[in-house]
Structures are given as structure tokens and as C-alpha cells.
Amino acid sequence: MAYTQDELKQQVAKAAVEYVKEGIIGVGTGSTANFFIEELAKVKHKIEGAVASSEATAQRLRAHGIEVFDLNNIDGMDIYVDGADEITEHLHMLKGGGGALTREKIVAAVARQFICICDETKYVPTLGKFPLPVEVLPMARSYVARELVKLGGQPALRNFTTDNGNVIIDVHGLNITDPVAMEAKINQIVGVVTNGLFAARPANVLLLATADGVKTYKK
Ligand SMILES: O=C(CO)[C@H](O)[C@H](O)COP(=O)(O)O
């Protein structure tokens, strides 16, 4: 049976709710994460609340009556649930299509398990067809763009301001043969806040919605 992309996102969001037991849940940003919020709202009696990876997600959680905690006021969390723009069999991800990559990486770092929820269009052999988002301090944008060219990319400034008041440079055409090394190299450029490669800390679980049902991959 053929499903629409939204139906696949909904199926994978439902599957992710099986991982929700108690306590505080880390919640990502984007259309797939939004489907997860809908499902989380149905089991909100089980949890204390959530930590949001963006202002948009925080608003949506509150609208569903889910309390949003400041990350600085909690000890930790069991799971962080979020989508991705691309993910490989190694559970390395490319994220940040929605511009929330820095807060996403911070919340993910605190969580014991990263549960990535995707439809099968996101499952790729190698990362980099989707332009890599890099969050940059505004005064450093030209310098960082020149450094990204030296790494083989074609930078394009996005018309967007992040929740942190910074800009996003989308890098096209990067040859990402070693995602862990590329993530570190870009983060070393002065003025970069972070980049959308989630490879040093890959997902722990991938729930992938396919035409044959939701498949689970674990690291
Ligand atoms: O990284 C993200 C936002 O910064 C999202 O997880 C990513 O862009 C996927 O979004 P969607 O679920 O809408 O396809």
C-alpha cells in the first residue's frame, strides 16, 4: 500500500511514543517532530514534561498542555526524539533544515538515547546531498563562508535568524566521506556555533517509516 509522506511521518511518530515511559522527554523540531508532539500529547499523563529544541516546539508543546522545562533546571533525560534531513546506516545524521540545529544538538547531548524518526526518503548511503546547515555568529559570516569554500563547499546564506540570534549558512556540494571528521573540522572554524552533522554523537535508535511498516535500527 502506498502511503503519503505525512502518513509515514505519523506512523513513525506513533512508534516513537512506545519509547515514552516517564520523566522529561526531549523534543525535536520540524514536521516529523510535530507529529510526535501530537502523539506525545495523548500520553502526557505519563510524563513530567518536556525540553524543547526550539521556540516553535516549546510553543506547540505548551499548546498541548505539556510543561516545558529549562534544560538548566533538570538533571538529565532518557530520550530525545527528533527527525533528520538525512541519516545513514551508521545512524550518522545531517540535520538543521529547520534551522534549530544548535539547540537540537545541545538537548540531544543531554539525553541518554537519541531516537531518530524519519520516513524512508531520509535514509541515504552517504550524507551531503541535502545542503549542510551551519549556524554562524553574524559578524563572522563572510569569513566562515570563505573557510567553507576551502573545504570544497558552496556556501549560501539563508534568509533566516535562529532562535539564538545567529545566521545559517547552507553548504552545498560537500564531499562528506568521514562525517565525524567533517563535523569536527567545521566546528573548529572561528565564528561557527555548530554544524548540522550529528556524527560524533549519532542516533541510538532509528525508527524508519517505510511502505512495509516502521523498521527499527539500533546502534
Ligand atoms: O533538523 C531539523 C530541524 O532543524 C529537522 O529535524 C529536520 O529538518 C527534519 O525536518 P522534517 O521532519 O520537517 O523533515
Which key phrases capture this entry?
single chain; globular; 29% strand; Rossmann fold; binds ribulose-5-phosphate; 219 residues; alpha/beta
Q: Identify every distinct bound molecule in the structure, by name, code or SMILES.
A: ribulose-5-phosphate
Helix content: 25-40%
User: Alpha-carbon distance between the termini?
Assistant: 29 Å
- Strand residue content: 25-35%
Characterize this entry briefly:
With 219 residues, the protein is α/β, with parallel strands linked by helices.
Question: What would your notes on this structure say?
Answer:
- This protein has 219 residues and is of the alpha/beta class.
- The protein folds into 2 domains: 5-125 and 200-218, Rossmann fold, CATH 3.40.50; 132-196, ACT domain (Alpha-Beta Plaits).
- It has helices at residues 5-17, 31-42, 55-63, 101-110, 141-150, 179-187; strands spanning 24-27, 49-52, 77-82, 86-87, 93-94, 111-119, 132-136, 154-161, 167-172, 192-195, 197-198, 205-210, 213-218.
- Strands 2-1-3-6-12-13 form a 6-stranded mixed sheet. A 4-stranded antiparallel sheet has the order 8-9-7-10. It has a 3-stranded antiparallel sheet with strand order 4-5-11, covered by helices on one side.
- Helix 1 packs across helix 2.
- The two termini are 29 Å apart.
- The model has no long low-confidence stretch (mean pLDDT 97).
- Bound molecules: ribulose-5-phosphate.
- Ribulose-5-phosphate binds at residues 28-32, 82-85, 95-101, 104.
